[in-house]
Structure prediction request, 361 residues.
Amino acid sequence: MTAADLPLREELRGIEPYGAPQLDVAVRLNVNENPYPPPAEVVAGAATAVATTVNGLNRYPDRDARELRGALATYLAQESGVPLSTDQIWAANGSNEVMLQLLQAFGGPGRTALSFAPSYSMYPEYARDTATAWQTAPRTEDFRIDRDVALSAVADHHPSVILLASPNNPTGQAVDLAHVVDLHDASDAVVVVDEAYAEFRREGTPSALTLLERCPRLVVTRTMSKAFAFAGARVGYAAASPAIVDALQVVRLPYHLSAVTQAVARVALAHAEQLLARVRDLRVERDGLVSWLREQGVTVAPSDANFVLFGVFPDRHAVWQGLLDRGVLIRETGPAGYLRVSVGTPSEMAAFRAALTEVWR
Ligand SMILES: Cc1ncc(COP(=O)(O)O)c(C=O)c1O
Prediction:
């Protein structure tokens, strides 16, 4: 039997599964991971929490993950200065799952999701998988959102969901919050600001969490995959009005977040301060990388994230391959001619700079 014999949805025929190559090379800077493993205290605390949890694995986990959501509310309030209650927080297996649930609840047949290209390549997949129509409006040449373009896209497409990554992936810059307010007020949509990389934003850049009270249809998604060095645990979350959280609970699978996941996430959150100190180091490393790349004469998009988009190369694949041949894996993604590199440890960044210097020669 081949796939052609299966009653597969037409729009899924011939589609390859999403994902960057997982290659076994010395320096992996291609999926915006945190290069530092969790600190020893988190490892020890998580090991104890897992042992305790495994003892009770005959029972289903807390379906509502209330303890974890409470800890996330406390963390977000500390990080952003915005007071939040447990009822305003939702958690799932990565922010990918949170956003899929948002499309399940607020998208669907006959509805449209809108975003601004280039942006995170999973967004059209959430739309496709939930049978939501997908529309994009273009960003400016320097990857910002233009107010007039944004408002006319809303008028043209009447989206029920608007997806804005801030900082944007793959371009790196945080969105101007005035645009979030404009899009919210000009539409009836649920406006999702995907802040997967928010902890890496530059000094003085506000989080969209500050708009939650002002904008009742706003959802801010975050993840523990990046700042918390917990990509393998799969924990993402959202802050929104309790009415939106209630809607997400309708579409979630029962017991979607395992007891082990909930337990280890709580341990990591208890060490937030220590983990965020590493984020500060990565921001310094990022700013150094941006300056170095600019000194080499390439175009570099400003970055509020733990990655940097740079170019423009007539043959970006050759540059990507040249780096890979020297044991450095980055990502061939984004607008034509650009490449994206994640911020690693100082020694990984030294290896990247040395390899790129050789490739250029
Ligand atoms: C912009 C953006 N949003 C969301 C995610 C998903 O993160 P996770 O599902 O690990 O929380 C990523 C992952 O790289 C991302 O780049």
User: Anything to note?
Assistant: Residues 117 and 138 are 5 Å apart (CA to CA).
